[in-house]
User: Which sequence fits this backbone?
């Protein structure tokens, strides 16, 4: 399976609490819900098309618990995204989670990166990471992400957890898509091509 991350970010790289003020108040974050004003039907259609390519979801603990609280309530026949989110196999990277009531779900413990590599080696289409910014950052640093999908909201949040942190790995990506939704969200899709390259600018 191809490992794909989909992350909602602000212009200053914040991924924390996009969906509501109470989604993630860790470290005193009080600016949640910054993504919501830009959501419209065109973006929801894109989200559905992406999810249709998934054969599994890979989630961190906090995102799993948040999704597991909300998505079971959206399991209605006319809610295509809700039906897929509830039906898809979920793999949860956590050393502390004791149970996985929102299923079908499998806990990944111990050597998590190796377990994720094993998942990638299985036949299938996409293993998708939604939210889970800390996990997504770790996977990017480890070189395990095949495709990076960023949905950038035109807002500077000014505080909160940021997606890209210092890493021992520098990665080169290839831009495969860049477009703006009617609501103002910028959709950027990149494929990993290997290690970053460096050069010196020479004047023509």
Assistant:
């Amino acid at each position: 399976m191809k490992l794909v991350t989909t992350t909602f970010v602000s212009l200053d790289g914040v991924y924390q609490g996009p969906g509501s003020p109470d989604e993630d108040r860790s470290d005193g974050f009080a600016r949640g819900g910054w993504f919501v004003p830009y959501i419209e039907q065109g973006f929801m259609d894109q989200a559905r098309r992406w999810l249709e390519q998934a054969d599994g979801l890979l989630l961190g603990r906090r995102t799993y618990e948040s999704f597991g609280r909300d998505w079971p309530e959206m399991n209605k026949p006319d809610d295509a995204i809700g039906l897929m989110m509830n039906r898809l196999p979920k793999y949860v990277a956590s050393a502390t989670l004791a149970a996985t009531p929102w299923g079908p779900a499998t806990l990944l413990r111990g050597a998590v990166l190796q377990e994720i590599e094993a998942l990638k080696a299985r036949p299938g289409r996409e293993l998708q990471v939604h939210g889970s910014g800390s996990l997504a950052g770790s996977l990017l640093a480890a070189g395990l992400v095949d495709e990076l999908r960023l949905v950038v909201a035109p807002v500077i949040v000014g505080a909160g957890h940021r997606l890209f942190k210092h890493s021992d790995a520098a990665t080169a990506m290839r831009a495969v898509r860049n477009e703006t939704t009617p609501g103002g969200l910028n959709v950027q899709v990149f494929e990993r091509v290997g290690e970053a390259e460096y050069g010196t600018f020479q004047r023509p």
